[in-house]
Here is the input.
Amino acid sequence: MILGVTGGMGCGKSTAAKGFELHGFQRVDADAQIRELILTAPEVLAQLRARYGPTVFSAEGMLDRAALAARVFAQVAERQWLEQLTHPLLFAEWRRLLAKQPEADWVFEVPLLFEQSLENWFDFTVCVACSPQLQLVRLEQRGLSRELAGQRISQQLPLARKIELADRVMWNDGSAAFLQVQIDTFVASLPGRR
Here is the structure.
C-alpha cells in the first residue's frame, strides 16, 4: 500500500504522515529528501552555482537554502527550473526505496503532489486541510512572515482544489488526537487492514 499525503503549508501533513507510521507505514518526507539528499549532491550544487553564482551560498561555500528559496519563490520560472533539476533525482530515490522494500506499506509526504501530477505513484491520496486563518497562524509560529507565507501558499494549488482531487480529506483544525482518530479510521478501511 502506498499513500500520498498532501495539503497546504501548515495544515499538518507531517503530523498526519507520522500518524500513519504508528500503523507500520514507512514514512518518506519529500521535502526532507530534497534538503538532505538532493540539495547536497555535488552535481546539484554545481548546477546551482552555475546558475546563481555565489548569491545562494554562504561565505563558507555551503548552500544558503533561505537565499535559494527567496529566489525560486519570487519567480515562477526559477522555481520550475529548480524542480526540473531536483525532481528527477527525487523520483529516482523513491524508486530505489520502493524496490528495496516492495512489500512494505508506505506513506509519502508530498507538498506538490497534485501540482506535479504525481497521483499515479500512489494507491490513495490524502489531503490534510485546515482553515486559512489557522494555516497562517501555524506558519507564523514556524517563523515565516505573513508576506512570505502568502507568497509560498500562492505557489501551490489552492487548498480547495487539493481537497477536490484527493481520495480522502482529513480536517486538522482540532487536536492531534482528533487527526489521529481520522487516520486510524482510514487505515482500518484500507484493503487488507483490520
Notes: The first strand starts at residue 2 and ends at 7. Residues 147 and 182 are 32 Å apart (CA to CA).
